[in-house]
Specification:
6 helices, 13 strands, 41% helix
């Protein structure tokens, strides 16, 4: 059985582009534009997986298509590809809900940090490649024994063909899942209506009995096909720079909501006029806010599950403060 050296070299180059060059270019571009960050250990692991993938891909084309050795190697590379994708999407981190990826964005007015848990996608890829791998394993046995294995359900079917069809259907299902996520994501709308304060001096000139709260009102439109499950929203208010740092100290937490806002936003619904109130309970801080202007920061911590993906989001919004 002659080894096909030309094909091995050609497909080795092509697989090196897929397994090594493309991931490294993506890492560089995403980090260059501060979209995602990756640890050095993760990038090294991907590189090791990629080198192994190149070697397996070359072996895949070492023997002619109509040999059992070719099918056995195809089985191995298919299963390996599934494990590779399983690792890429954080499937080997069952004890963590956040997965592998984080997104960071910052501008002069807003900063966003998001964490994505993609284990469901990892399992879908792994299941699809295992089904396709079984096709090659059965074909290898058929070629070695020169016998076709069939099942009869009203009509006779080759077992390998059944797994081939199931593999194609699984791939189409994954593509449909991705498409549905994109469609639903484009139909989400979050509208921050206003941020206003509510102050009560309790009818006295002293600040010791006053109360102050910041009210944040927002709308959530979910015209997509997936519900936004188990939303947990927390809010805190910090000073940045103030006109009088003695009355109102800089870079200090001055308030927060008593307990996280929790809700599920169902698909094809529009939820309006949702309000969270940040209470200011420190009377010294209340005095400072009533007598001092400055720049404040509203920090929102948000977590939810959407279309099987866990999302944790931290957002910082500017809140210029002018005292009454």
């Amino acid at each position: 059985m002659a080894i096909q050296w030309g094909k091995m070299i050609l497909y080795g180059i092509l697989s090196a582009i897929f397994y090594i060059a493309v991931p490294l270019i993506l890492f560089y571009v995403l980090e260059l534009f501060n979209i995602m960050t990756f640890s050095e250990s993760f990038k090294t692991s991907v590189l090791i997986f990629g080198i192994i993938g190149v070697v397996i891909s070359m072996l895949r084309h070492a023997f002619p298509e109509d040999t059992s050795a070719n099918r056995l190697i195809r089985f191995g590379i298919t299963v390996y590809s599934g494990i590779f994708l399983f690792y890429i999407f954080g499937g080997f981190e069952p004890g963590r809900s956040l997965g592998t990826y984080s997104i960071d964005y910052a501008s002069p007015l807003i900063s966003v940090q998001a964490f994505l848990g993609l284990q469901l996608i990892a399992w879908l890829f792994l299941g699809s490649t295992i089904i396709r791998g079984l096709q090659y394993l059965i074909e290898a046995i058929e070629l070695r024994k020169k016998k076709e294995y069939k099942v009869t359900v009203k009509k006779e079917f080759r077992v390998s063909k059944i797994f081939k069809v199931l593999g194609i259907l699984a791939s189409l299902a994954i593509l449909g899942y991705f498409g549905s996520i994109i469609y639903s994501g484009l139909n989400l709308d979050f509208n921050l209506q206003n941020m206003a304060y509510d102050y009560d001096d309790n009818g006295t000139p002293q600040y010791t009995d006053d109360s102050l709260s910041l009210n944040v009102t927002f709308d959530v439109g979910n015209a997509g096909i997936y519900a936004i499950h188990n939303v947990s929203l927390n809010a805190e208010l910090f000073t940045v720079e103030t006109d009088n740092h003695t009355a109102l100290p800089w870079h200090t937490k001055i308030g927060g909501i008593p307990s996280p806002y929790q809700k599920t936003f169902h698909s094809f619904t529009n939820t309006v006029n949702q309000t969270i109130s940040i209470s200011i309970t420190n009377t010294t801080i209340i005095y400072g806010l009533m007598t001092t202007d400055g720049d404040l920061i509203l920090r929102l911590s948000f977590s939810t599950t959407y279309a099987g993906i866990f999302i944790a989001l931290n957002v910082s919004l500017p809140f210029p403060w002018t005292h009454p």
